[in-house]
Amino acid sequence: MLNANCKRLPCKGENAACLQGSLDTPGYDGNRVLAAIAALGRARAACACSNLAPIRLFIDTGSVAEVEEIASWGILSGATTNPSLLAKEDGDPGEIVQRICELVRGPVSAEVVSQDVESMVNEGRALRELHQHVTVKVPFNKEGLAATKALIDDGIPVNMTLVFSPNQALLAAASGATYVSCFMGRLDDISIDSAVVLEEIADTLRAGGMTSEIIAASIRHPEHVVTAARLGCEIATAPAKVLEQMLNHPLTEAGAEKFRADWESRPEFGEWLRGLTEKRLAATGS
Ligand code: E4P
Q1: CA 76, CA 93: separation in Å to the nearest integer?
Q2: What are the tens digits of pLDDT across the range 103-149?
Q3: Most buried residue, 42, 216, 222, 249, by CB count within 10 Å?
């Protein structure tokens, strides 16, 4: 069974067909899938979906305290900063970026601010020297494209930011950008449906065989993250507030409360679990 909904980067065309159990989902429309495959020219890039990498979550912030909190949950794969986010913080921006790198132990985007290619490249090289996890963030424009090419040629990973259309995404990917940051919230702010644009970008890059990873950015609410995951974006970078919102569901809280109350109605069961835990701790020391 072919699956046109598969837009993940690991789909590099190694397999002739894309196998996915989730196609059994009620409401699955096979005709739509096949039509989409034809439209996207995806058949040659079809993949074994069982091997798909899960979406990675980054935090979008300049706040070390926020990174400390969210990193403690164990769900972060990286972080993105930008000049506006860092400008809100006290302290040395280089130290902030280095601390975030240590905390997330994954790619951390730090952005250049110069306007000409040479200065962008020089800033990018200097930012990269802050920490091995630094990814240089470069704004989208023709100077940014040239700077991206030069930094990539130096072996420096680049996150091309402020991408709002499939054409811009194509150019960013053509420059060799490691990541292409597609902004959702700022599109919605001007009444352009970010989900539609993000899907067009994903389709365009994948059908064109581009290997840049798509970062869904400018995320304003949890539904943006879900949309990014559904569309096969490799990464969603979300503010701490949105990541916190993703935790919550009233049924989870009510369910946990009920489990606790039921367990406490049997004090001897509580004793038993404490004993079991202590016995194990005494035997293993950890
Ligand atoms: C992306 O990396 C940017 O830092 C960020 O997502 C911008 O989001 P905003 O539109 O909420 O400022």
Answers
A1: 21
A2: 999 999 999 999 999 999 999 999 999 999 999 999 999 999 999 99
A3: 216
State in Å: Cα 80 to ligand 1 middle: 8
pLDDT tens per residue across span 219-247:
999 999 999 999 999 999 999 999 999 99
Q: Which of 86, 178, 183 to mutate to test the pocket of ligand 1 (most atoms within 8 A of CB)?
A: 183
Nearest to 56 by CA among 218, 232, 247, 174: 232
Kind of pairing, strands 235-238 and 213-217? parallel
Q: How far is CA 225 from CA 195, 220, 278, in A?
A: 10, 9, 40
Residues 6 or more apart whose CB falls under 8 angstroms from that of 156 comprise 124, 125, 128, 136
- Using the Cα atoms of residue 86, residue 91, residue 97 and residue 102 in order, give the sign of their dihedral: negative
Q: What is the rounded distance in angstroms from the CA atom of residue 69 to the CA atom of residue 61?
A: 12
Catalytic annotation present for 88? no
Phi, psi torsion values for 103, nearest 5 degrees: -70, -45
Q: What pLDDT, in 10s, does the model give residues 27-56?
A: 444 444 334 333 333 332 344 343 457 899
159 lines ligand 1 (CB under 6 A): no
Q: What's the angle, vertex CA 68, arms to CA 65 and CA 71, rounded to 5? A: 145
Is the Cα torsion angle 147, 153, 159, 160 positive or negative in sign? positive
148 lines ligand 1 (CB under 6 A): no
Query: Is residue 135 in contact with ligand 1, taking CB distance under 6 Å?
Result: no
Q: What percent of the chain has pLDDT over 90?
A: 80
Nearest-CA residue for ligand 1 atom 1 is 217
In a 13 Å sphere around the CA of 64, the CA atoms on its Cβ side amount to 15
Under DSSP, the state recorded for 248 is -
